[in-house]
Design brief:
alpha/beta; TIM Barrel; six-stranded parallel sheet; 6 strands; 41% helix
């Protein structure tokens, strides 16, 4: 099955490999597309989004792999999430992930709820011990909750999955990869989703159905291939 992954990083922010290197591994791993979602905040959004857009153009031209410019809004106060998300989208980001209240660092209270209420957000990344209130807001606004493959950020995957299944919130699996070897494979994806407490039917729904809904919500069509120059 083709892989989807909306949360990856490169040397544009704090990743350890250039976009072309990350995209090349995505292609080798069977990804349907490459999504470059480097970190942005109020100080960096103006500079980094154009770099992300250009990196995606280069990936399509050099590798023939569909590429989607995105961002992860990171360590932004809850009352500024909407501002940064809207600015990133206006500069060319087609998808917006928000760095949620992960236990992997120091969560900002109220950040999950602010992101879940923001119309420019697509995915609430590693949302930690997400509350029912924030999860319900995500459901109402068509925002997906992330099951994370990234170490400490994935500590609460079971909780996130349990809340999402109980409340009818859509889930998506992302790598949060900062280096090529951390990107997803088909087998790794299955293991992570089953390890989060999902049964086989739910695994297939998250791995295949959810990514298509994320893309369709923003009118993003992924072609079978992009001709190389």
């Amino acid at each position: 099955m083709p892989l989807f992954d909306f949360h990856t990083h490169t040397t544009i922010s704090d990743g350890h490999a250039a976009p072309l290197v990350m995209a090349g591994r995505c292609r080798d791993n069977g990804y349907a597309a490459y999504v470059c979602s480097d970190h942005v905040d109020e100080a960096s959004v103006e500079r980094r989004v154009p770099q992300i857009v250009e990196a995606c153009r280069m990936v399509e031209s050099e590798l023939g792999l569909p590429a989607v410019p995105a961002v992860e809004v990171t360590r932004v106060p809850p009352d500024r999430v909407a501002v940064v998300a809207a600015r990133a989208r206006s500069l060319g980001a087609r998808l917006v992930v928000v760095h949620g209240e992960t236990l992997g660092d120091f969560p900002q209270p109220g950040l999950n709820l602010a992101a879940a209420r923001c119309p420019d957000v697509d995915i609430l990344g590693h949302p930690g011990l997400i509350s029912d209130q924030a999860a319900e807001a995500a459901r109402e606004n068509g925002i997906h909750l992330e099951i994370s493959a990234a170490g400490l950020h994935g500590l609460t995957n079971g909780h996130v999955a349990k809340v999402a299944l109980r409340l009818g919130v859509s889930l998506v699996l992302d790598s949060d990869a900062h280096r090529p070897e951390a990107l997803l494979t088909v087998e790794r994806s299955r293991q992570l989703l089953q390890g989060s407490g999902l049964d086989l039917e739910e695994v297939l729904k998250v791995a295949q159905g959810s990514p298509l809904r994320v893309l369709a919500r923003r009118g993003i069509a992924i072609p079978q291939s992009v001709p190389s120059d």
